[in-house]
Amino acid sequence: MSRNQSFVRKVIYIAAIALLLLPLSALSQPATVGPKDRPELSSRGGKLSQLRERYNLAQAKLGEIDPASETMKLASLGLRGVAANILWGQAHHYKKVEDWDKVELVVNQIIRLQPNYLKVWDFQSHNLSYNISTEFDDYRMRYVWVKKGIAFLIDGTTYNRNEPGLISEIGWFVGQKIGRSDERIQFRRMFKEDQDFHQVFREHGVEVDQIAAHGPDSKPDNWLVSRLWYNKASDAVTSLGKPIRGMAPVLFYGRVPMSQINAADAMQRDGFFFEVAQQAWEKAAVEWRTYGDRELPTAAGFSVRMNDREQLVEHIKELRAQIDEAASGLHSKLRAEKRDALPADQRAVLDKPAEQRTADEKFMAEYAEASTFPTTDEMLAKAPREARPQVRRIVDQIINDERHIQEIDRNRTVVAFDYWRTRVQAERTNEARQARNDVYNADKLKETGEKFEEAKKLYERAWDTWAVLFKQYPELKDNAEARDLIDSIANYRDLLGQLDQPFPADFKLNDLLDAHYDGQQLREQIRLIQGGGPASSTPGQTPKPEETKPDEPKAEGDKPQPPKTQPPKTEDGKPAEEKPAEPPAKEAETKEPEQSGE
Amino acid sequence: MALENGIPDFWLWLFGDPAKMSLFQPATWGFLPGTIAIGLLLLLVAPFCSFVVASFQYGPSEAFYYVARAMFSAVTDDLPRFSPRRTFAVARLAIQEAIRNRVLVGFGVFVILLLFAGLFLDVSNSNPARVYLSFVLHSTNYLVLLMALFLSTFSIPNDIKNRTIYTVVTKPIRASEIVLGRILGFATVGTVMIVAMGLLSYVFVWRGLSHSHQIEVASVSEETAADGSFVRAIGTTTFDAHHRHTFEVGADGKGRTNVVANHWHEIERRPDGSYTVSDPKGQLVAKAPVYGKLQIYDRDGRPAEKGVNVGNEWEYRGFIEGGTPGVQTRATAVWTFSGITEEKYPDGLPLEMTLRVFRSYKGDIERGVLGEIVIRNPNPDAKVKRSGPILFESKEYVAYNRFIDRELNAEAGGGAESGKIDLFQDLVDNGRVEVEIRCVDAAQYFGVATPDLYLRPADATFEWNFFKAYLSIWLQMLLVTAFGVTFSTFLTGAVAMMATLAAVVLGFFGEFVRGISSGEVVGGGPIESLIRMIIQQNVTAELELNSVAATVLRSVDWVLMSLLTAGTFVLPDYTQFDTATFVADGYNIFGDLVAQQLTMAAVYLVAVTIVGYFFLKTREIAA
Fold first, then answer.
1. How many angstroms separate the CA of residue A104 from the nearest CA in chain B?
2. DSSP 3-state assignment of B64?
3. Do B126 and A101 touch (CB under 8 A)?
4. HEC string for B100-164
5. Global pTM?
């Protein structure tokens, strides 16, 4: 090969390289942001950069690129998967040998290798906040690790901007992990005071200083802050059109009003019952209504609104009336026939007034009622020939409405829509607030061992109010949330024991006790101790003898008591608070906590 | 710091534990018997192998003559006429060669790593000192080993390839001098590099961890007496270096912050009411703990091999059940300490604990789980058998200091005549004393392992500990250099490098190889693993092959794994040289461990140099 040929070949190579650089540049040129006054200097960058922008991957613009992440990805020389795999193994090993600092280190390396793999953020944040935090005995350390998990998720949002799932998870951790853990009292207290952590939120666009995020003490409340994150996640979906990842829309959107409900509930648990709590419940009611009005996509291909159910039911009734009109009472006639064809016991239950039915009868009545409705085929078959086209049209509408109701019911069941709607309505009433206030104060008095008689009065007043509320809002009674009240009833039972008084056989909330396992157990204990007292009236749900724990130490109130009712003894050396009838001034004193709490 | 392999004991390591030693388990032999066994085996096998190889070329009688002459002349000729001057001359040439080969590139890479370390290091970690120290020690270690690998393995093969070796071997120089000279030369280059990297690392760590805070004036709350004099102040520092502290200052104007990110600061209140904050304290330490021997007793008070397992996958710690001592439970953990004298511990015992807590119910989470410390006399016939209980509240994941005063309360109803007893007069028996830990809260548990309770009379200096860690790296570098030079005496450069690398890898993963061989690690040997990878079959599933094929490949694997396993016993165990964890965790590297490392390095260096000498000598014969 002559020297000349070699030179020509080199020139061709260089030219080919230069040519190849052009498409490469078009593909990978980073986006740039020009000065505000000269936007023409901004560039959207190459194809890859535009794709990153479209999918909201953070590394779209120069300056947003994380050098450590990029270098690590490059340094792994295409073996990123292998490197990540080894690191995952290491993270597991360090977790096993309780080397938490190293777990954190390795996790931070993993995310540099896999910053846009959303499951990594989900998994490892849960690892930090839930799994590792509980390994510490000291709740302060637990809180530190809960925060690490939340901060980790917040980091994730810088790599994956406006990703609704990640943002919503931050809200979930801030709300549920801080507000529902065993250490929630301590966690909530620490969160309120944690200004450095608040600063992290501010830096990521969640303004914790606004009143909407503040609890009654004018400090950030974890539930209300979580609500801000949920709102941010909802905005990403509604305003930016981002898809909801791995969660049903009904659950995703339900997090916003639920955080408001949880905030209102937490205020009451902290001893705030009146003005502040009332506002919080009012707001919760509005948010629940808004939530019910939100269009939710369904798998059936159409959207529904949960609040539409009642309207649709009314509409179906109207349509059935129209069938009667068009086909000379066809619907009513068919229904009457089907009702007559029911078995005798089902007919008897239907004839019985609704309020007098037992739980089983209610269930039977619902079933019988449903089977009295004629099917569309039956109506079409029995309709006069000339009315059939019109009947068919109406029947089609009924079918359509029923499909909507079916989807609405599915969504409503998932989020216990009816219960929470009733709950927010009930909690707004003065009676509910007063009843909760009484129970709270009575529990406090019982806990501090002061003024037992006054505590008893408060309890009894609360039970009276609750009985009225349960009658007005029966859904409240059956939900698991009502179990908190059973704990207070157990306190009341103990208190009566302290006062040497039996638990009343005709206790006003026996229905509530029967509706829950804890309550049934409580009644069974009372029955065993008081001998032939009120046993659970729910058939088949009485706990078996082996389910009770006779060996466990019992509270004083569990000791066998004489059936007779006696006034409290004053000469038996018990504290003076057992004396009946505290002066009214003292009563007023006991109400101070909730007033000062406001 | 968890010591999963127990606390090192040099003599036990050297001679083996007589209680556990078994003739058929080489792992139990101890280093010295193992070395003698391998040495004897090599002394028999190596000449025989040389004889067989030489026989093919020269015939048996000539081969016997060559092998005998090589061995004989080594003792009669090369050893007595060994010249340090010529060795140093070769070493000097090796240094020059290394510099010519741009060995400084390795150092440049290290400097670049340090410059950009801020991007990679997780400085917001709960223990930043550990992050920094781990980083510098491990990066130095890997870079130095890599450099030693490249430097040592290509030198002699290149000389032979370029025929420059003839300019040396035609001079009156011996093979031993060439091998040793090269090792010395390259080791010198490595030493200079390690020293430079060590100094740079120290500055890097020190600067990286150095920070200060100001006082948040608005947070300070001061208490004053009726006369207006200052009583105490509490407050918080500013948020710097990813953290802030709370602090408390006493009436003397001196105080300290709480421990965050594994350090604290001293705070001083000046007469004018302003505050000064010191540099961080307690980050760069080298605790020198004195460990005892642990014995756990179960709930019935019987000695137990291990404590209760509370469901942890990691069985390092055993747990003792809590409850009213002697009534609900007799479970205790007892550490026996030796060498306890008045001279060493004039004021009492400086105990430190790193216990774990397991709660079987929530209890009062505002406080830790309650426990008791009892100091016991190990002599069952002693008049005073134990002190009264000293109550403590558990603290997890921190070293919890608890100083045990010399004057102790007597046990109620014990043998003491008065209410007070003296630690040394009443409880120490021939320099031995027992420390008993028990959990007082019913149905809660304390997790214990031998290193979880120790005496901490005084710390070693951090700088000395840092030096010892670099000494470990230096010893590793020496070994890799020696292996590299030796392999390069009979292999080409690339092959020698691969062989040295294999020796290092086998040295780092010896336990894993033995695990595969014994079946503890599932997945099978090299052939089975390869097939599993190809057919994408899980390691725990039975191999989907017919029984004949499976038997054949497992037999091949068995042979390969036996060879590899034998290799792990012959090659140095590099994990024994990993002391970075000690320095990073703030623990002094045990003297026994350093002695082990020095012994291992010396033995391997001598052995490998001798082997290298014979190979080069044989090669000369062949040439």
1. 7
2. helix
3. yes
4. HCCCHHHHHHHHHHHHCHHHHCCCCCCCHHHHHHHHHHHHHHHHHHHHHHHHHHHHHHHHHHCCC
5. 0.82
Give which of A82, A100, A137, A139 to mutate to test B binding, by max B Cβ within 10 Å.
A137
Angle in degrees, CA A492, A497, A500, rounded to 5 = 130
B307-343 tens-digit pLDDT: 999 999 999 999 999 999 888 999 999 999 999 999 9
Give the side-chain half-sphere CA count within 13 A for B567: 20
CA distance B478 to B151: 12
Q: Report strand pairing: B390-393 vs B433-439.
A: unpaired
* Average pLDDT for B11-25: 87
CA B74/CA B64 separation, integer angstroms? 15
Query: What distance in Å separates the CA atoms of residue B94 and residue B7, rounded to the nearest whole number?
Result: 40
Residue written as token pair 């019988």: A368
Question: Given an 8 Å threshold on Cβ–Cβ distance, is B313 in contact with A196?
Answer: no
User: Taking CB atoms and an 8 Å cutoff, what residues of chain B touch A141?
Assistant: 396-397
Q: What is the band of B369 on the pLDDT scale with cuts at 50, 70, 90?
A: very high
State whether A137 and B316 contact (CB < 8 Å).
Answer: no
Q: What is the pLDDT of residue A64?
A: 59
Q: Is A136 on the interface with B (CB under 8 A)?
A: yes
- Nearest residue of chain B to residue A96 (CA atoms): B314
What distance in Å separates the CA atoms of residue B514 and residue B509, rounded to the nearest whole number?
Answer: 9
Tokens for A66?
A: 């994380």
Q: What is the pLDDT of chain B when averaged over all its residues? A: 90
pLDDT at A65: 65
Within 8 A of A67 by CB-CB distance, chain B residues are: 119
Reported ipTM: 0.88
**What is the C-alpha separation between A209 and A243, in angstroms, rounded?**
29
> Between chains, do B239 and A186 touch, taking CB under 8 Å as contact?
no
Neighbours of B118 (CB within 10 A): 10
Residue B210: is its pLDDT beyond 90?
Answer: yes
Q: What is the pLDDT of residues A60-104, one digit of tens each?
A: 555 556 777 777 777 778 888 899 999 999 999 999 999 999 999
Q: Does A186 touch chain B (CB under 8 A)?
A: yes
Asked which of A376-390, A542-556, B223-237 is least confident by mean pLDDT, the reply is A542-556
Q: What is the SS3 assignment for A252-314?
A: HHHHHHHHHHHHHHHHHHCCCCCHHHHHHHHHHHHHHHHHHHCCEECCCCCEECHHHHHHHHH
- Residue A108 touches partner B, C-beta closer than 8 Å: yes
| pLDDT at residue A9, as a whole number | 93
By CB neighbour count within 10 A (0-12 exposed, 13-18 middle, 19+ buried), where does B175 fall? buried
Q: What is the mean pLDDT of residues B594-610?
A: 95
Task: Give the pLDDT confidence of A534-583 residue by residue, as tens digits.
Answer: 444 444 343 333 333 333 333 333 333 333 333 333 333 333 333 333 33
Q: How far is A168 from chain B (nearest CA, A)?
A: 25
Q: Which range, of A250-254, A278-282, B157-161, B164-168, averages the lowest pLDDT? A: B164-168
Sign of the alpha-carbon torsion through A249, A250, A254, A255: negative
Residue B228 zone, left/alpha/beta (φ > 0; ψ -120 to 50; rest): left
Chain B: give the shortest CA distance to residue A93, in Å: 10
What pLDDT was estimated at residue B354? 93
- H/E/C letters for each residue in A191-202? HHHCHHHHHHHH
- Chain B positions contacting chain A at CB under 8 Å are 2, 4, 116, 119-120, 122, 125-127, 130-131, 239, 244, 313-314, 316, 356-357, 359, 362, 365-366, 368-369, 394-397
pLDDT of residue A57: 66
In 3-state terms, chain B is what percent helix, strand and coil (to 5)?
50, 20, 35
- End-to-end CA, chain A: 95
Q: Residue B397: its chain A contacts at CB < 8 A? A: 100, 136, 141
